Predict the 3D structure of the following.
Amino acid sequence: SSIYFLNQKSRKLWRAMGLSALGLVVGLTLGSLVVAIFKAQGTVLPADQVASLSATITLLVLWFITGFLR
């Protein structure tokens, strides 16, 4: 959906695809980093909570890119 909204904004498909892919990679990287920080502090998170935390951070990054970048 972020590709669709970015393409509607700028009418440049490859740019929209690139920004969406970049947002996906950045979001998953940040999610994994947050999970690693929790592990370093000794907090054990269940697998489903790790997945939902990474997905939430990824969706927030994609929302930011779609909403605020041109």
In short: The mean pLDDT is 85. The chain is about 85% helix and 0% strand. Residues 6 and 69 are 9 Å apart (CA to CA).
